[in-house]
Design a protein that fits this description.
The protein is α+β, with helices and mostly antiparallel strands. The protein has one domain. The chain is built from 2 helices and 6 strands; from the N terminus they run ββββββαα. The strands form 2 sheets. The protein has a 4-stranded antiparallel sheet, with helices on one face. Strands 4-5 form a two-stranded antiparallel sheet.
């Protein structure tokens, strides 16, 4: 089961804010990278968002979903990679929407189908 990384604020008392940079979403093998406020310092954290085995994801601290804070030297590289993946994902999604909107034949079929559903309701 997926655990939304935006809600992960553990270890308690150490994580003050979470800015999710990349979240693979509610899929198997989901993971996330975030910019954190960790002990009043900016840091980069990473975590698995959960699956059928671990609904809270990994890591956990005393049974609560938690972040693994990356060493300072590694954080910027992981953050840059996560930003690039997020950008690629958004660009691909926009392109798919553009292609769908440009396909007049499929748009017409979808409209007919929707009107048929509405007609069946009466």
């Amino acid at each position: 089961m997926y655990h939304d990384p935006r809600t992960v604020l553990s270890p308690k008392g150490r994580v003050k804010s979470v800015e999710v940079i990349y979240d693979a979403g509610p899929v198997d093998g989901s993971w996330a990278v975030a910019r954190l406020k960790w002990d009043e310092e900016t840091a980069v954290g990473i975590r698995w968002n959960g699956d059928s085995v671990s609904s809270k994801g990994l890591p956990q601290a005393r049974g609560y979903p938690a972040w693994f804070v990356l060493p300072g030297d590694l954080g910027p590289a992981v953050l840059a990679a996560a930003q690039a993946i997020s950008h690629q994902r958004q660009t691909a999604l926009k392109e798919e929407y553009r292609l769908m909107a440009a396909d007049r034949e499929r748009e017409s079929e979808a409209e007919e189908w929707a009107e048929g559903l509405i007609g069946d309701a009466y």
